[in-house]
């Protein structure tokens, strides 16, 4: 009798480019994507869309700065002066998740670079203070990760509007289906089409424990345990209409 080939571990990350805790969890997603037999799919949840689009104001700045500063302290993820003293003081800045989500989808369509684009957007926002809702900024970010500007623009324009809105609606439907409470939500799709939410918050700052957890999940599906190299430390959730500190964090 022929042995059945083990299934890949299928993880679904429901995220948003403007979600601070998604930025904090970025190293964990990197580890997951780098592991053999792990399939990571990104789903943009559209946190700041529709009536939740944000126009920078003194009230918003005061609200997010206290949370971002604590996120930085807890996770070690950097927040730059250009963000704190630049973007957050720009009264004309608009934070809209649609455009960076479209860019992430376009990068994914151009060879699977969705996670790279998300990380570049996060760095551009939180470290460099860039306006990641502007298409020309996103085009430059796409070039930064090695994509051709013309190809990116074509993919972006094809996916903008209804395609991105449909993606966001499907992502939110998945969020509710798996019982997620906000962003990021990481869900495991089992071989028998069941779903289980993975508690990312338990592994922040514990990359080796996160690797071991993923290895255990792989082993349960019939894969051999693989020794992996050390990586930088990982650094739990934004409600679906905006960021707040996770209740599990002290």
UniProtKB/TrEMBL annotation:
<feature type="domain" description="DSBA-like thioredoxin">
    <location>
        <begin position="16"/>
        <end position="188"/>
    </location>
</feature>
<protein>
    <recommendedName>
        <fullName>DSBA-like thioredoxin domain-containing protein</fullName>
    </recommendedName>
</protein>
<dbReference type="GO" id="GO:0016491">
    <property type="term" value="F:oxidoreductase activity"/>
</dbReference>
<dbReference type="Pfam" id="PF01323">
    <property type="entry name" value="DSBA"/>
</dbReference>
<dbReference type="InterPro" id="IPR001853">
    <property type="entry name" value="DSBA-like_thioredoxin_dom"/>
</dbReference>
<dbReference type="InterPro" id="IPR036249">
    <property type="entry name" value="Thioredoxin-like_sf"/>
</dbReference>
